[in-house]
Amino acid sequence: MSDKKKLYQERLNRYVTAMDVGKPDRVPIRLNLSEFLAKYAGYTLQEIYYQMDKNIESSNKFIQDFDVDTVPGPPSLWMGGIHDATGAKYLKFAGRELDKDKQFQFLESDYMKAEDYDDFIENPTKWILTTLLPRLHTEFKDPYRAHLSLIKGAAGMVMNQGMLAEAGKRWAEEYGIFPPFSGMSKAPFDTLGDVLRGLHGIMMDMHLCPDKLLAALDVLVDHNIYYGMATAAGDTTLPLFMPLHRGSYPFLNPEQWDKFYWPTLKKVIEGLWKHGKRTLFYAEGDWTPYLEKIAELPDKSIVFHVDMTDMKKAKEILGGRFCLSGNVPNTLLTYGTPEEVSDYCKKLIDEVACDGGFIMDAGGVVQWDAKVENVRAMIETTLEYGVY
Amino acid sequence: MANQIDGLKDALVGLDMNKVLDKVKAGLDAGVDPMDMVKDLQAGMVEIGDRFARGEYFLSELIMSGEIMKQAMALLEPKLAGVDQEYKGNIVIGTVQGDIHDLGKNIVAMLLKGAGYNVIDLGVDVPAEKFIDAVKENQAPLLAMSVLLTGCQDPMRDIIKAVRDAGLDVKVLIGGNYVDEKVKEYCGADYFGTTADDGVKVAKEVFGA
Questions:
Q1: Which of A68, A151, A355, B51 could lock B57 by a disulfide, CB 3.0 to 4.6 Å apart?
Q2: All domains of chain B, ordered by start, with CATH?
């Protein structure tokens, strides 16, 4: 076995052991770095949004320089060219609508209207293709351009995915590193609330048309399970990435959370777990009031990621049954000193990681403003102090 | 005459959109002073803000009440032309350049309006000059800036520096999910807020009302 293969296996074992709530040789380090990687490698954001080779190169530089167990693929998931091909109205990219070093922007709106619910429930895919896509894209003004733009966009997507797959192989072979997750899905409430109805729309719906909202959420359960397994290409070693948004405190009142947010999310997670697929419950914001509910999930079916949730309570309520991760504050990585970051990591290792089932990571996705010396302090502290 | 609008405040606090709009329409038909209705609605918004602060209401209730308020004001505003409204003071608010998140900003603005302040809302992606011009033009004693992403906090620092350099006598409040004491210090702001009702608390301190 080559050294890199051995390293790959060691790291993977460490990561999987922690997710199974076991105690590996040391605390694994996963860093969910996004635009930070571009800055570290010396690229502008325009370059990584528009050139897949540079997007991929950004990751190479970081994984050459740092000993981490796993980092997600390249910094940008959203390639500008694909969205330009279809004329996406809901996104703005660096170098086009924005300065070359500005983070991409998502323009939220109620792209789906309250009166669309019946058609959506009847056949969501058909509704998306015939109604939503034309609303979201300038190239859908006439059928001729619409067809061409879909071909261009799809071809671009396939090329990008091919490059990513190649890069993934190279990262494994040359650097002994693997991605922290495979596949992605969402809470049905977020599928509707993020891009379709928007926050404002879905908040109104809970008051004004709750039955339709509930029916639409139900329709999404099977779809979101399927989407997760399909985007993971069936892999069940790594967890699925599930960024969670509208369920954080204090968006919904407790009755709304119990009625609208949790039941279908629980079904998606349980459905994935039946396929052997674990979910990285990426709980953005504060989820402290809901920990007891989350504890209803089958043992080990999630990795509960802590952003601003009370870590002590998370450990108390979920510890021992679920792996925990995260919680190094993003503001600390940006404004703190290496000593402060190191102290914070030590505290996490002492108080949370002590009996296994913990993965070191930042609270939220690390943007380009994090200081390199603070990211270094996080890694070095874990490598030295996180040994069991 | 006032009995047309009895319960207007409670209807808003209870988030009953139809009842609020019916009462406003009935009030206007009966010739009730629109300012009286605005005051009732504002009192309702203050109560809603208090409920949020006590943990009884959540963002969903704030957003719903904002929508009801918007629709009620659409009925009332044409009747308010030429009426001098009394305000506790002027507050300039906006989301800083580079950031387009406006949920927090809109809720804070709504609660400030409800509490009786004149809120000049500059929207999102607002550059320094726009903030400075608005503070000067309105002689606003309080400037409130919203930001979500830590990566967009640098413009906030630059804007605050520009405001200080321009010699403006204005207190600066910054707000957002990832804002804390550290960010406040870094940006040179006077106050920071992380929850919906922090804005009103700070305004009370700045305006003494």
A1: B51
A2: 2-80 (1.10.1240.10), 90-207 (3.40.50.280)
